[in-house]
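Researcher: Let's do a round of design. I'm pasting the structure tokens now; please hold your answer until I've finished.
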């Protein structure tokens, strides 16, 4: 069985589930999902810049309406549970947890703990962070010791 750590920032869509569960053909995959609820106001600014870069001005304006920090924990828990159920419904093994602080440290610990074969980072595009190589995938490649695959979500959750 192939073991993947899947880092996400929102609930997986059906297209996302199909995408990640078919990456290895017929080989069975066990997913260990890490989800970090939305961060602080500095993260909000980067997301708004990304929305503007994508031409999604309405999304940039609505960034203020999205729960942040502690207020986002409940939303994160629901998104994680929806994602785990969807992965299991597709026939994959899946377990997961929320990451509250230091996502890359949590990722490294989990990779070591379970002997993961790979890390998959599935997010919306974050152009500012990617340009400066500060996104999760770029930073994880230098830390985890297994291949890191960066994928973009297929659609809005």
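Researcher: That's everything. Go ahead.
Model: Designed sequence:
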């Amino acid at each position: 069985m192939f073991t993947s750590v899947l880092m996400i920032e929102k609930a997986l869509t059906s297209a996302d589930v199909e995408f990640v569960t078919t990456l290895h053909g017929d080989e069975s995959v066990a997913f260990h999902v890490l989800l970090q609820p939305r961060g602080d106001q500095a993260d909000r600014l980067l997301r708004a810049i990304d929305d503007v870069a994508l031409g999604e001005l309405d999304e940039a304006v609505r960034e203020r309406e999205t729960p942040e920090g502690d207020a986002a924990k409940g939303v994160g828990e629901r998104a994680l549970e929806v994602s785990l159920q969807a992965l299991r419904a597709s026939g994959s093994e899946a377990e997961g947890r929320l990451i509250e602080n230091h996502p890359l440290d949590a990722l490294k610990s989990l990779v070591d703990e379970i002997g993961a074969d790979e890390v998959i980072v599935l997010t919306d595009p974050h152009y500012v962070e990617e340009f400066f190589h500060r996104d999760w995938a770029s930073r994880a490649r230098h830390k985890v010791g297994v291949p890191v695959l960066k994928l973009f979500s297929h659609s809005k959750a």
